[in-house]
Amino acid sequence: MQFLPVIGLEVHAQIKSSAKLFSAAPSAISRLTGAPNANVALFDAAFPGSLPTLNRECVQLALRAAIALDSDIHHRSAFDRKHYFYPDLPHGYQITQHFNPFATGGYLDLTKYDGVDTEKRIRIHQIQIEQDSGKLLPSNTSPANVLVDLNRAGLGVLEIVTRPDFSSASEVLAFMRKSQRLLWHIGVASSDMDEGAWRCDVNISVSTKSQKSDLWKEGVRTELKHVSKFNVVRTAIEFEIARQISILKSGREVLQETMGLDENGHTIRLRGKEDAPDYRYMPEPDLPALIVTDRLINQVAKLMPESLDARRDRLEKDYGLNMFSIGVLMDEPGAVEYYEALANCPLSIHEFGALIDLVEDGKISGIRGKDVLAIMFESAVSEQSDKRLSALEIARINDWLIENDSEEHYLDIIVDELLAKHEDLVNVPELYYYYFTDS
Question: Which residues form a coiled coil (predicted)?
Answer without folding.
Answer: none
